[in-house]
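Researcher: Next entry in the queue.
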Amino acid sequence: MTAKTPKITALTPAQVAKSLAAAGSRRITDAMIQADIDAGAPVNADGSINVVHYTAWLVREVAGGD
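Model: Structure for this entry, 66 residues:
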């Protein structure tokens, strides 16, 4: 039996950091993801992160909140 693959709509901050770091050359840590959560990044009721919603939040932040 293989390990269960996490859903993109319910990842931990550590899983998000690992995925984003693997996708680019910039170093991303769980602490950076947690800082975004503390700054208002959306999380699910259980504290997990929907990567689609998180990415949309990041885009809005970069665009100046527009």
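Model: The CA atoms of residues 17 and 29 lie 5 Å apart.
Researcher: Noted, moving on.
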